[in-house]
Design brief:
The protein is mainly beta and 118 residues long. 0% of the residues lie in helices and 54% in strands. The protein contains no helices and 11 strands. The strands form 2 sheets. Strands 2, 4, 5, 6, 9, 10 and 11 form a 7-stranded mixed sheet that branches. Strand 5 and strand 6 form a beta hairpin. The N and C termini lie far apart (40 Å).
């Protein structure tokens, strides 16, 4: 059974930091592209960051230089280090796993709330 379990969300002041984690199970984590997406109230889900099975990364322009995605294949976990947080980063953050070799289906976690507010 595939599971993606996010953790690390919470309430933080502007300029603060949070580290999200996504623990994966039920599939061969090391061969999947992993990603973080977010959805703010009233908005569509958007890509935040991706990391390929080779370790290459890609970021949304809005988070470049502030967020860092990483993965630990030994722990089947992907991380999102978020620094210099802004109120506009407030959203539910979702972990995604996608096999770029065979394509669909992809897998989603249940999401973790991040709120940036003073």
């Amino acid at each position: 059974q595939v599971q993606l379990v996010e953790s690390g969300g919470g309430l933080v002041q502007p300029g603060g930091s949070l580290r999200l984690s996504c623990a994966a199970s039920g599939f061969i984590f090391s061969i999947y592209r992993m990603g973080w997406y977010r959805q703010a109230p009233g908005k569509q889900r958007e890509l935040v960051a991706l990391i390929t099975r080779f370790g290459s990364t890609n970021y949304a322009d809005s988070v470049k230089g502030r967020f860092t995605i990483s993965r630990d294949n030994a722990k089947n976990t992907v991380y999102l280090q978020m620094d210099s947080l802004k109120p506009e980063d407030t959203a539910v953050y979702y972990c995604n796993a996608y096999n770029t070799i065979v394509g669909a289906p992809d897998y989603w976690g249940q999401g973790t709330q991040v709120t940036v507010s003073s």
